Amino acid sequence: MGTMLKIDNINVYYGAIHAIKGISLEVREGEIVTLIGANGAGKSTTLRTISGLLKPKTGKITFLGGNIAGRPAHEIVREGISQVPEGRRIFAEMTVLENLELGAFIRKDADGIRKDMEMVFRRFPRLEERKDQQAGTLSGGEQQMLAMGRALMSRPKLLLLDEPSMGLAPLLIREIFSIIEDINKTGTTILLVEQNANMALSIADRAYVLETGRITLSGDAGKLAASEDVRKAYLGG
To answer: Which residues lie closer than 8 Å to 114 by C-beta, 6 or more apart?
Structure first.
């Protein structure tokens, strides 16, 4: 498996706050990689930097061989990276269908867009049932599905997921995570940021542990899930 995304020693600041302190990580083609860590560890900041919403002060971010650090977000979407933001951020006043169409805004291939819309509806039957409803009337779980469906409409090579389980009931969390596995199996590489470390490690190939802007541990997800330190800190053991 080739390396799809490589982050090399990036430093990111929010004003005067040094949020990301020289982290390096990589995501290989076809993997699910997860970033776990406490609130405020820098997980979301890392994703926002990859997707172009924040610019690193120093360091390199290479995607499929090209440096994307500091490039505008819309260009990064064109390169094949799509982010499902924390808190979903769907367009509440628009219908489900309009939200999904917006996900395909960079594409011109009407046939491909229609096929992908069918694929999203197969994967998320509830969205099809509610396609003419205003997105703001959906439940939290359905909004999460819509945010994921919208991201898939750009046909990304790499999907960035920021806290997909946030605010969802356990049953729905399991459903969302099995959909994430399914999306990965059909060929999309995934970088997942998640508070629910148990769930994240159960589906990931590899994991990185972030603590106050630094990576303190990394490796095979199963091994990390079994490690004493990780269990004590993140798995309620």
So the answer is: none
Neighbours of 168 (CB within 10 A): 19
Show the CA angle centred on residue 126, arms to residues 123 and 121, nearest 5°: 35
**Superfamily assignment of 3-234 in CATH?**
P-loop containing nucleotide triphosphate hydrolases (3.40.50.300)
Q: How many other C-beta atoms are found inside a 10 Å radius of the C-beta of residue 21? A: 14
Residue ranges of domains in the chain = 3-234
pTM above the 0.85 mark? yes
Alpha-carbon distance of 197 to 159, in angstroms, equals 19
pLDDT tens-digit readout, 94-145: 999 999 999 998 888 999 999 999 999 999 999 999 999 999 999 999 999 9
Q: Which residues pair with 136 in a beta bridge?
A: none
Residue tagged 């367009």 (tokens): 91
Distance CA 141, CA 173 (A): 8
Helix axes 96-103, 140-152, angle to 10 degrees: 30
Residue type (1 letter), 164:
P
Residue type, 46: T
Q: What is the CA radius of gyration of the chain?
A: 17
The answer to whether 53 and 14 are in contact (CB under 8 A) is no
Question: Which pair of structure tokens corresponds to residue 195?
Answer: 């508070």
CA angle 109, 115, 117 (to 5 degrees): 100
The length of the chain is 237
Q: Angle between the 140-152 and 170-185 helix axes, to the nearest 10 degrees?
A: 10
62: which strand partners? 6, 67
